[in-house]
Please model this.
Amino acid sequence: MLAAARGAVLVPTVPPSHQPLRQQVDQGENVEARLCFYLSALFTAAEEIRRHLAAGTPVVVESYFARCITNHDAFGARLRIALPPDLPQPVTYYLCCAEKERGRRLARRAKPTSRWDVLSETLAPRIAAAYAQFPMRQIDSTGRTPEQVVQEILTAEPAGRHGVDTKPLGTQPHVLPVLPRRREGSDAS
Model:
């Protein structure tokens, strides 16, 4: 919906080339293997994002590196990831809602619940606290239609930006910075 409103292309977090392996990886229990799979998918998506941006086409992605790394850190991944500085840097929005609303939405999902979904719910406060480290624009979607949420995003976006940040990283308050890493020996995210 946001992509259509912006005249953008929606780039999936897990590209079609990775979909056949996704279910198998998600059925496994190895958090490092899962993290590596999703990083591979995201680096492949980043190549597509670069091609679109080079052609002047705006891009929308429903999830990006921060979510992947933050969630897997909460799941217990021990790999240390250093992202290359030349990755496309999105304007990032964190959509949230009241817990009661969140529970209702989760119950209506038309997909089976995986081990990782259950783990995400168990660790939701820890994941939310990790997200709070980043200068993402938080949008409360409680009691709002998807159209209303899209309108708020469009209203919040600086005129003429359309999701492409031309300023150096760190100068735009809604751009996700490089992920802070845990100190060695620390179990906190």
Q: What stands out?
A: DSSP finds eight helices and four strands in the chain. The helical segments are 2-6, 19-27, 31-54, 65-75, 99-108, 115-122, 124-131, 146-156. The radius of gyration is 17 Å. Residues 159-189 have pLDDT under 50 and may be disordered.
